[in-house]
Design goal:
Immunoglobulin-like, binds copper (II) ion, 3 domains, binds CU-O-CU linkage, 31 strands, 4 helices, 5-stranded mixed β-sheet, 7-stranded mixed β-sheet, mainly beta, disordered N terminus
Length: about 500
């Protein structure tokens, strides 16, 4: 059984690790020795059918709220054909069950931790009171329970819930603690978008498997885990049978540290309708979709342009390897389609940039500490490592603020992309490197990718709740190795 001192042990272990010079090269990656893993090329590709995570039903519906119970437990799941993988799952499932909730209808979730690891549950993109936001130090110890209240006073959007335990997030999420949390509202439901079986959440993650089928994870290194196998909704390189009609896909990059740039087929057009914080004002056509860790995008793909029998790959254009294709859509039948993509989707209620405000700056960079030899890198925000007891900024409730995020790599070869995520407040990206934001960044966001040397200026307003919240890099190994800060809404 893990003890509370485990975090300390881990920090100590970090100091004892030998990181060779080569591992510190640009965007160094964790690689697992090939001898230890099931060969990725032995895993079947595009034959296993895509699965959809089950939708969790409330245990109690009262006139005013829905109540759920979730048990976090270990289970053996067949991810690779004929082998069992030990997972840590919400309800013993990987990925966790999907929650579909309604705007303004509160849900109360009782989580019981039957794992041997400590946990904390965060609804990413949720506007939640501080004691229900999965603050990293608010941990649920093995055997304990905690009740989280989510008022859902926010726009319809594709959110996700995942573990956030202090120093343990990378491992806990990798072993399975993540699922979709979809907020619906009347405005979005009134649109003629594809719905029901044609509204499909796709959680994209990478993993490496040991020869015995278990997940490979090195808890000591902290450059960011990248796996050898692409999974969608927990299925390696799946295929999905589709008909000649429109589908709405809710895309989530739930990887610990893998950046994606999604493309369909031969970079065929995709209609982007939503970002992290819900629907865009109007649809836009794109051909590639960058999606950093924790970012979401909602897209419509119209398969009516393909003949029955066509196979269309969803790929990651950032890699040239067997990892390039992620999944395959097989167009198997002709079908009429009553779904439409309306020219106007939603009023996002964007903020107005205040004339006088000066920006708060958050700088993400590695620091070097001789105390941490022979692993001298510590990931920091504004030069400091995370301390749950230290508040690094007080933010007045209801004020519109300008925040600047900057990725600084003082020594270029230890730089790394840092997808920056703010709890509680969604933001509007005003500028990326002094220019207009990218096409897929022009809606509400809660996570923004920052490559080495990049700077992003955003507008945000913390609303509804006072208390302590976090801001951090969503490379989960960076996060666990201190690239996180606390701000207090006052
Ligand atoms: Cu998705 Cu603070 O996390
Ligand atoms: Cu979050
Ligand atoms: Cu980072």
């Amino acid at each position: 059984m893990r003890k509370e001192t485990d975090a300390m042990t881990r920090r100590t272990a970090l100091r004892l690790t030998v990181l060779g010079g080569a591992s510190m090269a640009a965007r160094a990656r964790i690689s697992t020795p090939a001898t230890a893993s099931t060969r990725a090329d032995a895993i079947p590709r595009f034959t296993l059918p895509l699965k959809l995570p089950a939708v969790l039903e409330p245990t109690v519906r009262t006139p005013t709220q829905d109540e759920y119970t979730i048990v976090q437990r270990e289970a053996a799941q067949e991810i690779l054909p004929g082998r069992l993988t030990k997972i840590w799952g919400y309800q013993g499932m990987f990925p966790g069950p999907t929650l579909r909730v309604r705007r303004n209808r509160p849900v109360v979730i009782r989580h019981t931790n039957q794992l041997s690891t400590h946990t904390a549950v965060h609804v990413h993109g949720g506007v939640n009171p501080p004691d229900s936001d999965g603050f990293a130090a608010d941990m649920v110890m093995p055997g304990a329970s905690r009740t989280y209240t989510h008022p859902n006073r926010q726009r319809a959007a594709t959110l996700w819930y995942h573990d956030h335990a202090m120093d343990m997030t990378g491992e806990n999420v990798l072993r399975g603690l993540a699922g979709f949390y979809i907020v619906e509202d009347d405005e979005e439901q009134s649109l003629p978008l594809p719905r029901g079986p044609f509204d499909v959440p796709l959680l994209i993650q990478d993993r490496t498997f040991n020869a015995d089928g278990s997940f490979a994870y090195d808890t000591v290194r902290h450059m960011g885990f990248e796996g050898e196998v692409m999974l969608v909704n927990g299925v390696p390189w799946p295929k999905m049978e589709v008909s000649t009609r429109k589908y709405r896909f809710r895309l989530l990059n739930g990887s610990n540290a893998r950046l994606l740039r999604l493309a369909l087929g031969n970079t065929e057009p995709i209609t982007l309708i939503g970002t992290d914080g819900g629907l865009l004002p109007a649809p836009v056509t794109i051909t590639t979709l960058p999606l950093a860790m924790a970012e979401r995008a909602e897209v419509i793909v119209d398969f009516s342009r393909y003949a029955v029998g066509t196979q269309v790959f969803l790929t990651n254009a950032l890699v040239k390897s067997p990892l390039t294709p992620i999944m395959r859509f097989d167009v198997v039948k002709r079908e009429t389609d009553d779904a439409q993509i309306p020219a106007r989707l939603s009023d996002p209620g964007f903020l107005k940039r205040p004339k006088t405000a000066t920006a708060r700056t958050w700088t993400f960079r590695p620091t070097f500490s001789l105390h941490d030899l022979p692993t001298p890198i510590v990931w920091t925000v504004n030069g400091k490592r995370f301390d749950p007891n230290r508040c690094d900024a007080t933010v007045p409730l209801g004020d519109v603020e300008l925040w600047r995020f900057r990725n600084e790599a003082p020594v270029r070869f230890v730089g790394s992309p840092h997808p920056t995520h703010v709890h509680l407040a969604h933001f509007q990206i005003l500028e990326r490197n002094g220019k207009a934001p990218l096409i897929h960044e022009r809606g509400w966001k809660d996570t923004v990718a920052l490559d080495i040397g990049e700077e992003v200026l955003v507008l945000l307003r913390c609303e509804q709740f006072r208390g302590r919240y976090m801001l951090h890099c969503h490379n989960l190994e960076h996060e666990d190795h201190a690239m996180m800060t606390r701000f207090d809404v006052t």
